[in-house]
Amino acid sequence: MIIDTTEVQTINSFFKLESLKEVYGLVWIFVPIFTLVLGITVGVLVIVWLERKISAAIQQRIGPEYAGPLGILQALADGTKLLLKEDLLPSRGNIRLFRVGPSIAVISILLSYLVIPFGYHLVLADLSIGVFLWIAISSIVPIGLLMSGYGSNNKYSFSGGLRAAAQSISYEIPLTICVLTISLLSNSSSTVDIIEAQSKYGFGGWNLWRQPIGFIVFIMSSLAECERLPFDLPEAEEELVAGYQTEYSGIKYGLFYLASYLNLLVSSLFVTIIYLGGWNFYIPYISITELFGINKMFRVFVIAISIFLTLAKAYLFLFLPITTRWTLPRMRMDQLLNLGWKFLLPISLGNLLLTTSSQLVSL
């Protein structure tokens, strides 16, 4: 059987084209992920700079100003310094747990960004259980902290890990109940559906106005989950040196530092999504969904605006945890647990009961 050379060239070019398509498909899968990771990294650097500038203003200081314009590169310089520092290991500690702990904390928080819509339907995974997936993933973080405390072979570190686990369990339950209440109001647990349910009524349809009690409980619980003052008992320097971070140095310490700010950004974004309408902005008689039907060029412009609005709301909310860090004193451990179990839990359950009753009456 004789095959023409032109046919062979055609077959070879076809296979090359198919292989290029496969490579292009694989690259296109990873492009959104790398873009998200890069955006998150920049967001964390901005949060660190904001916290230092705001805290300096509260204490009547200047703050960072030499590393880059207005000191914007100071966090990057600190990260580079931690990356180059020596990585010390405790001689009698459990080295495996000691090494794995920071990675578990960072990876579990990064996975939470999968279900966050940064703009109009701009989300990596629009799951029907989006908000509850975030809660499930965030509950893994205290396991990493407990592993770090136990693997350090240090009483201060182990006490910090135990405090982190107790604090997380105490405040995750009211947080979950608040999210369940919003899911009942929105008839969905998808983050995109929750935002669209608020957009039906404009600015007055935000869950902030429909669930003010749940909003307050959610903020307090999320601050406790992020271990921010006045809830930073796991790393209280007056009592535990640095808590579960005591034996860490170099890049592993930097991972804990990164995890705390990643968690803070996640909490602010979920406050924006659940209570502040997400990407929606209020124009009388016009919704952002209607703006998408005009033309393709204007659609890109609206996507950019929706991303800007989501991030603007999240960063405006960040002023609350930053200012509370420099204004409120630290609570005692018994006060922290009493607040979670004796006050926030009954209030969130009562709020859930009232919301369920009103939903049944409206049927």
TrEMBL record:
GO terms for cellular component: chloroplast thylakoid membrane; plasma membrane. InterPro entries: NADH_UbQ_OxRdtase_su1/FPO, NADH_UbQ_OxRdtase_su1_CS. It is an enzyme of class 7 (translocase). Its EC number is 7.1.1.-. Keywords: Chloroplast, Membrane, NAD, NADP, Plastid, Plastoquinone, Quinone, Thylakoid, Translocase, Transmembrane, Transmembrane helix. HAMAP family: NDH1_NuoH. NDH shuttles electrons from NAD(P)H:plastoquinone, via FMN and iron-sulfur (Fe-S) centers, to quinones in the photosynthetic chain and possibly in a chloroplast respiratory chain. The immediate electron acceptor for the enzyme in this species is believed to be plastoquinone. Couples the redox reaction to proton translocation, and thus conserves the redox energy in a proton gradient. NDH is composed of at least 16 different subunits, 5 of which are encoded in the nucleus. This is NAD(P)H-quinone oxidoreductase subunit 1, chloroplastic. The gene is ndhA.
